[in-house]
Amino acid sequence: xxxxxxxxxxxxxxxxxxxxxxxxxxxxxxxxxxxxxxxxxxxxxxxxxxxxxxxxxxxxxxxxxxxxxxxxxxxxxxxxxxxxxxxxxxxxxxxxxxxxxxxxxxxxxxxxxxxxxxxxxxxxxxxxxxxxxxxxxxxxxxxxxxxxxxxxxxxxxxxxxxxxxxxxxxxxxxxxxxxxxxxxxxxxxxxxxxxxxxxxxxxxxxxxxxxxxxxxxxxxxxxxxxxxxxxxxxxxxxxxxxxxxxxxxxxxxxxxxxxxxxxxxxxxxxxxxxxxxxxxxxxxxxxxxxxxxxxxxxxxxxxxxxxxxxxxxxxxxxxxxxxxxxxxxxxxxxxxxxxxxxxxxxxxxxxxxx
Length: 354
Prior knowledge:
Elements: H1 2-25, H2 46-111, H3 117-123, H4 127-197, H5 202-212, H6 218-229, H7 238-249, H8 267-277, H9 286-289, E1 294-296, E2 306-309, E3 315-321, E4 324-327, E5 336-339, E6 347-352
Antiparallel strand pairs: 1-6, 2-3, 2-6, 3-4, 4-5
Helix pairs in contact: 1-2, 2-4, 3-4, 7-8
């Protein structure tokens, strides 16, 4: 990704800056013109443009991860709000039924002699019978009162829960919208420098693209996938094979932040969809995916493992074996197979899913 490139380019950028400072320190030659016009700004060097692109791309990567995390939070809070709404509706239905039953019972007490204290006295054959009827009546009244109290408490509790869930959902959406605005701002800057880079020669642009997105020989990818399909593929589960096959089938599709297919992906959207094809659900966030499965070191990697980059975690890829990964890199690039070696300096950790 661009940030790796930008780190490698920093010495070159320092050299360019040093030349600029030196030029400022050299006194200008004497001139007959008291105030000579300022020369136009020289075009930026390829290294400078690459550095600017790399810095912006790294910020963009972290911002997209924050955006994805906010989306996960919004979805969780939406589910909570839906659950609270269902509970409130159920409590309201139960409460309505109890009110109908209560109305019927009260009407029966009022209209039926046997359901009132007076009726109990008139219809009783002796004192004990009268007391027994009053006891039954009191028990019925107490039971109904308890039912009303429970229903009212449940209705109030679910109403409070729904209000809280709605408030949290609004807060999460507000944060997501703000992050989206920030993302748009960074993307505009990336577009600006991408346009500037387009003014370079085709050879310079080709060299830049090769550095930005290291290529893997197609023959190596074919060899790795063929080995995975063999019955003797060691340590590779059937689910991992499904996930890898899905990820490889997306190669060439564009990176779009917040996307999880079928036509475009961001990094965690690709791994989510790949393992989702194998029946293993994951959240749409690299940092959250890091908490799934069993952590393994780089030298323990097996095909299907998820590889995480940067601190804080801002990128995730899926390992396919033979030192290769399938990655949805960043805006302006497509899903591709990249060498693990180019990421080693940014490696944060890896997880192995079932």
